[in-house]
Amino acid sequence: MKAGAVKAGAIAAVVSGVPSTAHALFTGGDVLAATRAAGTLLPGRRDRPGITAGLVAHVLVSAAWTVVLATADRRYRLGVTRGAAAGLAIAALDLGIVARSYPAVRALPRVPQILDHLVFGAVTGALLHRPQRTDQGTTWTTSPGCSEL
């Protein structure tokens, strides 16, 4: 995976938790509930939620979905809109199918989790094609080629 895709996925993984965190703050809920629930996705931890395991699971799941989105983006430029649609599709799979087997994930408020996925897809899609800075201070979109110089 290219560095730009890694960066896009990392940024998206961090900011995608904003909707569920905001929801928890505004409703007096547990801001770490989603992180703990994610920990149950790791093998052998289905009934043992935890923050550290949740962070590891979140990184792994985000990386996997970033690979999928970056692969799709090579064929169809995602951008914000298609990225958001992809995020909703990911939510349908993650929350509609996979979560059935994970009670801690299933117990999370649904709408904030869907919004987290939507944000992940939108941000990843938006960042996959941001111009990359070169050593000369230009961007790859303004100075294509010339890699031999």
What can be said about this structure in brief?
The protein is mostly helical.
Q: How does this structure look, described?
A:
- By secondary structure, the chain is mainly alpha-helical.
- 64% of the residues lie in helices and 0% in strands.
- The protein is built from 7 helices and no strands.
- The longest helix is centred in the middle third of the chain and has 25 residues, at 51-75.
- 31% of the residues are buried.
- The mean pLDDT is 87.
Features:
single chain, 149 residues, mainly alpha, 7 helices, 0% strand
- SS-derived structural category: mainly alpha
Mean pLDDT: 87
Q: Termini distance?
A: 25 Å
As residue ranges, the low-confidence spans are none
Q: How many E strands?
A: 0
Largest sheet properties: none
Shape: globular
The DSSP helix count reads 7
Indicate the proportion of strand residues.
under 5%
* Rg for CA atoms: 17 Å
Helix content: 55-70%
Q: What is the helix/strand order?
A: HHHHHHH
Strand and helix layout:
Layout: H1 3-15, H2 18-27, H3 33-39, H4 51-75, H5 79-96, H6 103-106, H7 110-127
